[in-house]
Amino acid sequence: MTGVMSGCCCGSSGPINEDNARFLLLALFIVLYLLCGAAVFSALEQPKEREAKERWAQRFEHFSQKYNLSKKDLRNFLKNYEEANVAGIRVDTIRPRWDFTGAFYFVGTVVSTIGEVYCNSKIHFLSQHAFQFESIKYNLSEPTLGKYFL
């Protein structure tokens, strides 16, 4: 199965073996799949994005004219708002994002996720190696080996 293909060469390194050819073919199919997916999503989403940008430009223009603001000042204000929003500052004053309740929820999510991965890996490890542990225990309890280790 790992024979050498005589007709396929890659540069000056000589013939390519069957496993490498399969890997390259798989990589080619994955790249082709990603390119097709990108083309589909671009075709589906790009018109909606253009419409949303046009609506935003109209709202921006209308707001700028209505409140007699320069477009430069309004853009700067909106840029500052975006930076504050990314930093976690909210416009509404219902409750802060990082009060004790929010922080407790975040910590609980992190700990439960890490704990789940850790516990599942331990259980998997133990179930895979339970027989080995039992055989070591049995061998150590024999009179000839037990006197050295117990």
TrEMBL record:
SUPFAM superfamilies: Voltage-gated potassium channels
Domain of life: Eukaryota
Keyword Glycosyltransferase: no
Biological process per Gene Ontology, one example term: monoatomic ion transmembrane transport
Catalytic function, reaction form: K(+)(in) = K(+)(out)
Leader peptide range in chain numbering: none
Major localisation: membrane
Protein name: Potassium channel subfamily K member 13
Gene field: KCNK13_1
